[in-house]
User: What shape does this take?
Amino acid sequence: MVKKFNQLAYSNLDDFVYGSCPNPVTTKSGMIIGGGQVFPEINFTLPGMDVNDTTIKKAYTIYSNIIEGVLKRASELYAPGVLVEFETVPDFTENPKYGIEVNRIILNAMKEANEKYGLKSAIRTTPNDLREFSRPPIMRSGKYLDTMLEVFEKCAKDGSDFISIESTGGKEIHDGALVKADIRTAIFALGILGCNDMEFLWKNLVDIAEANNCFPAGDSACGFANTAMVLAEKGFIPHVFAAVIRVAAVPRALVAFEQGCVGPSKDCAYEGPFLKAITGCPISMEGKTAAGAHLSPVGNIAAAVADTWSNESIQQVKLLSEMAPVVAMEQLIYDCRLMNAATNKGQQILFRDLLVDSDASLDVQAYVLRPDVVMRISAELVKTQDNFLRTKIAAKLTVQELKKAINEGIVKSDRRDMKWLDKMEKAIDTIPDDAGEFYEQMKSELDMTKFIPSEYGLK
Amino acid sequence: MATLKDVSQCVLDGELDEVKALVQQLVDDGVDPITIINDGLIAGMNIVAPLFKSGEMFVPEVMESADTMNEGMKLLKPLITDGDIPSKGKIIIGTVNGDLHDIGKNLLVMMVESRGYTVVDLGVDIKEEDFVAAVKKHKPDIVGMSSLLTTTMMKMQSTIKQLVKDGVRDQVKVIIGGAPITQEFADDIGADGYSEDASTAVELCDRMMIA
Assistant: This one.
């Protein structure tokens, strides 16, 4: 049964805050995500090493050391609960036994930490999307899809609380659109290819979750909008383009919730605030405390309406104080403590607004995450149920919001931004409202060797 | 009357349609095609490169310039024999085995191609033996490898070992890049060079060619 979102989950901006949401989710250990307080969400990865049958035992030991270290520190700092994300690297999905075993190692460590320290924890299992290993990608069948689904199923069966993915449908076209700052092609990739694939993939993942007492949590446009953000940070593409891509990625992420996801959305899905505004589900976000994984211009504002607060990822290397994942755990816990203390003092809205105001005027990508901007754009997106049209509207509205904000001087801008916004607006205006008509138009502009239309339900 | 400077400016501005007319005019005026390439098209890209490095141009603008240069090249190539087309060197580039990230690699391809290098792009998920086979087949001056994951970066080392094992390591310079890569790592695995991103990779290739 596909859910429809035709109205916002919030009617009052003051209710749109971090730590709570209309539809909280309770984990197996009793953590209520979105039930009043923000929980830390820790993620980690291996140091530079090969993963194969010879080295896998070493990899298991490293994961074991990481999870024991972070849970011990969480307990020492009296964390009210910890969400652990296990995001597989390709080797761990391609060889399901590796990924499934690490998931079990983490689950066992969580159980032991509960027995030993009384620490509540939950796990989000995020297999990586293997399907792009075929070029052009085979999205709806084949060994890569089967292998990936096997990891999801076994991990869910073993006791994962949540499953997530950073799916890549349409990325083969979007990558080229990003480096050319080509908004028409980006909208095609996100609004048609991306949304179509999300429908197919998440229907499968929701079935797996429901059959295994697990929550389908959400997807991330990491390979789309976060790639844009990183390229913008490097000065490779305009920040305004990355900001528009961020919001244009919202309808794609929303498809997962239409299919049955309940949150918390993926940490690196900065489209989270829009998802929360529309679905009322809890979201995970990352910002300043994810700087060990990637830089961003949204370090504080990303936390404004977060329900879990993540570090994105950090490899197991020694820092002066401790191993890096333990350091990340500590930083996340202190961030969450501060937010939760403000809530307990009745200062939640003030604290949210401080998080917002400290970033929003300094970068256009931060500006589009302002809760009022999020609510305004989201209110327009729910007026249609057509995912492609939503994508086009999201891009157009973001261009308009940014033009207005730049003209009014309320957000810092590059001297070239207005030129790029004009260029994008013109290009968006050439896009018809009908997905089929747009696809026909795009056929002559696309490199049709890069994707297989039938893998996206297209002819 | 069209000048070589006009062609350079056209490349800088990414004026795809105009460049064809300008190049044709120069050809009709009897200007040597090699001169048009070197002092017009590539000279334009030589202005673009520092502007990109200093942040004054974005990648999409650089790509428009590169496309403009290529449009001019299309007109000139039939007029010269292959051997006369100036090339600063040949590079084979690929993302290593098990890694699918290719935006950085693709930017590098675009940057070095537009600066006069001949590039063979092997694609993503390239096995060690495929790098070796490509070296034997294309006889490049430089092998470029990219990796974005901590679990695939070691494939750069195994590729270098494979190049050694197959006796072709001495024939090429090996350069590497990608998010987890550092100069120290490059030194450790025996690579000849490391570049932080595509904007500095051309200079690295230039250094490799004279080393």
